[in-house]
């Protein structure tokens, strides 16, 4: 038997470190080629790391929650000479899922991961469902410390939710306020990346904000008509189509500021970013070539990407390729917001919730469905005239969607 050490591989996208979220195997487990052995969180996404060779796990390098550098040891595997067959060697690409391994290849070789935790009595615990494991991870709950209330000691969703609501033990005191510190949350992985991006945006970009109240009644009526004939795109997809059209007319808002070269780079095409709130923080997956898609095409991609973002399966490329961001903060139950530009982009459009409100139409006060649109833009790339022109274009499309669609 000989021990082989597998180092944390190149994560791509210029990433040099990752947080070890959880082990999918334990010492003594058998592992096959391309079987996931750990789940790590990079600054871009949550990904699984597959083993490049088969054998028996001899050692796990690192504790859950630790930050690992690319090239540092991840696992040591004991493997017999006969396990080094050419078929296995050729079958492993030493890459991360989401960074190049195809779904078809991965699904053929992957086996169900063996639970790593051990119950307090030394017995192997009942296997938890993926929903329970993800809920525990998102809330920082250690499953090995719980006693399950389900059949056979199974840890249920209620067990995790109960544990998540228990206050953390007080260990120290804040020096400025004198108040007890309830818990400390390390800035790692995606949350650290979000912090860096937003801080850089605030420090580098001379931003300005403009907004307008828009009568979205006709847009809601159009969607209701479309639903009568079958599946209708969501309101966000309809607004997204108008945003993409507006960017073709006002390309200054779909650009980059290159401070080193002293120039503004206007982009040919739109990768539309969608701000999405997840359990691991704010992420912005992007619809590639959004300018080539219809409302229904945009609707399909919006649903796919928002689901992937919340489940942690969005790829690094999807999370870092946006050219302009649309932020639907209305889903949070708020009417307006001055958002922070997603650096290195130069603008972000926000949409609040749509509510019935009094509105003046032809001199009469009537009830209409209103929504507030707000545009935050980089004053280096354009002035208020361009920003206002773009915002007014989108607002006019929302108020007269049938006329707008006839021109698109």
Automatic annotation (TrEMBL):
UniProt keyword Acyltransferase present: yes
GO molecular function terms listed in the Swiss-Prot or TrEMBL record: acetyltransferase activity; lipoic acid binding
Family statement drawn from the similarity comment of this UniProt entry: Belongs to the 2-oxoacid dehydrogenase family.
Cofactor needs: (R)-lipoate
Species of provenance: Lentzea aerocolonigenes (Lechevalieria aerocolonigenes)
EC class: transferase
GO cellular component: cytoplasm
InterPro entries reported for this sequence: 2-oxoacid_DH_actylTfrase (IPR001078), 2-oxoacid_DH_E2_comp (IPR050743), Biotin_lipoyl (IPR000089), CAT-like_dom_sf (IPR023213), E3-bd_dom_sf (IPR036625), PSBD (IPR004167), Single_hybrid_motif (IPR011053)
Protein name, UniProt field: Dihydrolipoamide acetyltransferase component of pyruvate dehydrogenase complex
E.C. designation(s): 2.3.1.-
SUPFAM superfamilies to which the protein is assigned, alphabetical: CoA-dependent acyltransferases, Peripheral subunit-binding domain of 2-oxo acid dehydrogenase complex, Single hybrid motif
Keywords: Acyltransferase, Lipoyl, Transferase
Lineage: superkingdom: Bacteria
